[in-house]
Amino acid sequence: MTEEKIRIALFGLGHMGLPTAALFADNGYKVVGIDINSETVSMVNDGKSPIMEPGLDELVENVVKKGLLSADNGISTLVKDSNVMIVVVPTPVDENKCSDLSAVISACESIAKVLNKDDLVIIESTIPPHTCQNIIIPLLEKSGLKASKDFGVAYTPERALPQNTLYEMTHNARVIGGVDQKSAKKAAALYGKITKGEVITVENLVTAEMVKLMENTYRDTNIALANELALVCESLGIDAIHAINAANYHPRVNIHNPGPGVGGHCLSIDPYFIVEMAKEGRYPARLIETAREINEFMPHHVAGLVKESLEACGKRLIDSKVGLLGVAYKGNVADARETPAEPFIRDIIQKGAEVLVHDPFVEENTIKNMGGVSVAFEDALNCDCVVLMTDHDIYRQITPEMIKNSILICTRPILDPAEFKKNGVIFKGVGRP
């Protein structure tokens, strides 16, 4: 497969898939994106990005105008003529915290129908270890072709953050594993065209699968440690933020900030893939599972702080209005997937309160689906209790006089407690007594 003859079909035009497709197109490859969402397909074909991401709208417009990127709902002629198939579809967990691979399976079943000799299939979706070998390759071999002998298979996890996706995709290191050296080499050469970062080839598919899970599990576990330390510090009357900041001066210590929980499609999901597969082996992933339990508890702890603070002022949570600042899982993004704000909202509503939400990035429908009511900034600040959930930059400008009813629960360390307390505001926070 010579470089000038590479034609790419990419399955999944979401937060990672569309930037990936656009970057390959920007490097001169002919790319067709496949997505089940008709609105996404229509917008891409019109040269517009359905995803809020700096620089992506302009990039999509440019490559569509050049005829290098198009989109479709199904297996078109362009897909049949492609010789590199990339799968970047979502892999959530189900109600039992087990991986839901239905989208990956569906994409691979479609690929098997059009797979040709010497094609290369690349999986980017986050998956449990051994998924490529035990599920994906058997599905692809329903084509009548044999992996390694007739076609190649590689796995490379995406590594990028919302609001910085294009930069990270073009500068971060890339980890690649293959069913054989030939597959890994082909994939490495391809991704080397879109990133200035190092392209690291590991020994096989399962190692590459595990790398992505390790990265996000490390971060989730670190946050869980910070959150548990914060809970202990609260009970002992210690400011955990000050203590953590001081501890991090140690050259070999890097404790993350505590907060209201963990969101996003990676950190809150990926550790469960290790837990799931560990149960099939000889050693359970006890620390990883406990870390998930701690981080999932945090939204409910914040709800408890609201209840305690209201009661300290002689109010009841029932029939109170709680103003929630931010539902995105992190600051200055529109992404509310797996946000800790949702279990917080549902907990508070179940206890009889109304939740009025302000978020300048997240759509009103998303807020409504969580159970909140979308309101203006001032209306959220005018509630019986204000909860700062997301560290959007706009909330860094909040001053004591803006908190109309004198109760602020600040779950992110972006405001000075002393400033609010000396102005008569009841200030509570994660790790702040």
TrEMBL record:
It holds the Pfam family UDPG_MGDP_dh. InterPro entries: 6-PGluconate_DH-like_C_sf, NAD(P)-bd_dom_sf, UDP-Glc/GDP-Man, UDP-Glc/GDP-Man_DH_C, UDP-Glc/GDP-Man_DH_C_sf, UDP-Glc/GDP-Man_DH_dimer, UDP-Glc/GDP-Man_DH_N, UDP_ManNAc/GlcNAc_DH. Keywords: NAD, Oxidoreductase. It catalyses: UDP-N-acetyl-alpha-D-mannosamine + 2 NAD(+) + H2O = UDP-N-acetyl-alpha-D-mannosaminouronate + 2 NADH + 3 H(+). GO terms for molecular function: NAD binding; oxidoreductase activity, acting on the CH-CH group of donors, NAD or NADP as acceptor; UDP-N-acetyl-D-mannosamine dehydrogenase activity. Its EC number is 1.1.1.336. Homotetramer; probably dimer of dimers. Belongs to the UDP-glucose/GDP-mannose dehydrogenase family. This is UDP-N-acetyl-D-mannosamine dehydrogenase.
